[in-house]
């Protein structure tokens, strides 16, 4: 007998045990005990799991578990005539309705999911962050820059000694503000990877490839409503300050644009009214009586007139 034939016979599933296969009523009773009343349906099939071990499958009528089956495994000891219960479980079938695969919360979280009071922890080795101060940029001890730094530190100590009569909060506040600018007060700052990831998100939302930017008359780099950013991102991004623009208060790419561009459609100045043709500043004199030489009224004496009809 060849080795292949031996392996095939060894891996072959044994025939179901007769007594275990006939224990359908025992398996149904176990399934009905584990399930709710009326949930266990018809006997579907049975599978031999090994020597004197058989699993009976029953239909599950629960609407929430469509396509699932109750699996009841029974077994019989060697040379024993009594079949005993092994386990009862609910298993999905080939067309079962399954829940989506579980995903860790860190992968399920999406922008906008956080609410008031929520805390979002960051990993200790988050690739988006890096230490705020590592000492790698410190100059060598004997370099010219190090000597200049020591001289500046000595000068600061002298100034602190001269200003002992003044409130120390002013000086310490100035030092603290400088420290914040240098990043010394933050344990971690954005790494190059973190900056690149942020830039890709901003460019996707408000970048040159968006439909709004494609139809814009001009880009944000020439818009008066653009507030430039600080740092290295200043070369590619800014903040929109136009309340009527779709990106108001958002970080936009300098290549982004919209119809609210400050120079896209400048309103024309109102037309200047034409000066009035009649001069209303000059006083015109009108005579109450017509002139003597006008010919419109016959001349009459100014004295009393005589009655020509009576002598």
What does this molecule look like?
It contains eight helices and nine strands. With 311 residues, it is of the alpha+beta class. The strands form three sheets. The chain has a four-stranded antiparallel sheet. Among the domains are: 90 residues, Roll (Nuclear Transport Factor 2, Chain: A); 60 residues, no CATH class; 62 residues, no CATH class. It holds the Pfam family DUF3027.
What descriptive keywords fit this protein?
elongated; three-stranded antiparallel β-sheet; 26% helix; alpha+beta; 311 residues; 17% strand; Nuclear Transport Factor 2, Chain: A
| Secondary structure: number of strands | 9
| Major sheet strand order | 1-2-3-4
* Low-pLDDT segments, ≥5 res: 1-10, 163-172
The first-to-last residue Cα distance is 182 Å
**Beta fraction:** 15-25%
Please give the count of helices.
Answer: 8
CATH architecture descriptor of the domain at 3-92: Roll
Class of secondary structure makeup = alpha+beta
Shape: elongated
Mean pLDDT figure: 77
Quick synopsis:
This is DUF3027 domain-containing protein. The protein is of the alpha+beta class and 311 residues long.
Outline the secondary-structure elements.
Layout: H1 3-11, H2 18-21, H3 24-34, E1 40-50, E2 53-60, E3 68-76, E4 83-92, H4 105-108, E5 129-131, H5 144-162, H6 168-182, E6 188-190, H7 192-205, H8 211-214, E7 226-228, E8 237-240, E9 251-253
Antiparallel strand pairs: 1-2, 2-3, 3-4, 5-6, 7-8, 8-9
């Amino acid at each position: 007998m060849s080795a292949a034939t031996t392996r095939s016979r060894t891996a072959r599933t044994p025939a179901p045990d007769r007594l275990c296969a006939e224990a359908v009523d025992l398996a149904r009773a176990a399934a009905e005990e584990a399930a709710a009343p009326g949930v266990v349906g018809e006997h579907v099939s049975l599978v031999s799991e090994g020597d004197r071990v058989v699993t009976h499958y029953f239909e599950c009528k629960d609407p929430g578990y469509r396509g699932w089956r109750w699996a009841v495994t029974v077994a019989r000891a060697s040379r024993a005539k009594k079949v005993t219960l092994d386990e009862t479980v609910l298993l999905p079938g080939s067309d079962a309705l399954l829940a989506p695969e579980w995903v860790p919360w860190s992968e399920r979280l999406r922008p906008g999911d956080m609410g008031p009071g929520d805390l979002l922890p960051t990993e200790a080795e988050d690739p988006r962050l890096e230490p705020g101060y590592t000492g790698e940029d410190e100059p060598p001890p004997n370099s010219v820059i190090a000597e200049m730094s020591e001289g500046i530190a000595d000068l600061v100590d002298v100034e602190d000694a001269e200003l002992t009569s003044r409130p120390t909060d002013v000086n310490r506040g100035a030092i603290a503000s400088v420290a914040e600018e240098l990043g010394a007060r933050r344990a971690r700052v954005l790494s190059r990877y973190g900056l690149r990831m942020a830039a890709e998100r901003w460019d996707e939302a408000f970048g040159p490839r968006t439909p709004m930017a494609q139809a814009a008359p001009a880009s944000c780099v020439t818009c008066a409503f653009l507030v430039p950013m600080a740092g290295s991102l200043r070369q590619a991004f800014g903040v929109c300050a136009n309340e009527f623009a779709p990106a108001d208060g958002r970080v936009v790419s300098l290549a982004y644009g919209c119809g609210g561009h400050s120079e896209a459609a400048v309103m024309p100045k109102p037309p200047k009214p034409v000066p009035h043709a009649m001069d209303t500043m000059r006083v015109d004199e009108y005579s109450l009586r017509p002139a003597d030489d006008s010919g419109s009224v016959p001349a009459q004496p100014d004295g009393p007139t005589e009655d020509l009809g009576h002598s």
